[in-house]
Amino acid sequence: MKMRRTTYEMIFARLQQMGIIDEYGEMQADYMKFASSGLMPLNVDKLTSNTIALAHNGKQNGDVMADPDMEVRVYPELKMAEALSFRNDYMGIYQEVYPEPGKYYPKLKKELNNFLNNWLKTMIEMQDYQLAA
Asked: pLDDT tens-digit profile of 79-90?
């Protein structure tokens, strides 16, 4: 009997499927941009060796706005990834799962990882995102 994958394992697999990380959990470049005809481009930035940022960015009054912007930590040895933060400038939202060392918000952790998993799933299902840069 095959074990059901955790949300964290599914996020890792979806990041691989999109070509954001390789089979070892490494990002292919320090910056990538995925273009789509139906949605805003997806910008991917390598923040540290195991942390990336995924963002859709719009513009409002000349300012770049995150809609959303999420920081994601990748655990290559576990083949897992998890959401660390969520930002949506249009709604004035910034949330951190781990606001300080030794502290975290379990409910927010679950919500953000479910959102991230579904967001990646939607982009994959559209089959429209292509690496642009």
From this structure: 999 999 999 999
**What is the rounded distance in angstroms from the CA atom of residue 121 to the CA atom of residue 133?**
21
87 in Cβ contact with 69 (< 8 Å) = yes
d(CA 99, CA 95): 9
Answer yes or no: pTM beyond 0.85. yes
The DSSP result for 14-68, as a single string, is HHHHTTSB-TTS-BSSSEEEEE-SSS--EEEEEEETTEEEEEEEEEETTEEEEEE
